[in-house]
Structures are given as structure tokens and as C-alpha cells.
Design a protein that fits this description.
Shape: elongated
Order of helices and strands: HEEH
Number of strands: 2
Strand content: 5-15%
Structural class: mainly alpha
Number of helices: 2
Helix content: 40-55%
Length: about 50
């Protein structure tokens, strides 16, 4: 079985999710963070941090 390599986008997505979770955000628009695309996560992150 082949190993799946993580891309830079996967790593960035995981970092944003981790930062949102440390701020107490577990759901956005009624969905779990891991279900959302990176764009939605980044948008929410910048709105909450700024």
C-alpha cells in the first residue's frame, strides 16, 4: 500500500484547524472544522483573530 504524502495545503489546513480549536471554535456554519475547505477556515480565522 502506498503512503499518502501530506501537501503544504494539508499542513496549512491542519495548522489553521489547530489554532481555531485552541480558541474554542469547534464548528463553523454547523459543520465540523475538518469538513470545511481551507478557504472557509482561513476566512473564519482572520475574522476571529482580527
Amino acid at each position: 500500500m502506498r503512503k499518502m504524502e501530506e501537501t503544504k495545503m494539508d499542513v496549512k489546513r491542519q495548522q489553521v484547524i489547530q489554532q481555531l480549536v485552541t480558541r474554542g471554535i469547534f464548528k463553523i456554519y454547523g459543520k465540523q472544522l475538518y469538513e470545511l475547505p481551507l478557504y472557509s477556515l482561513m476566512k473564519e480565522y482572520y475574522v476571529r483573530v482580527s
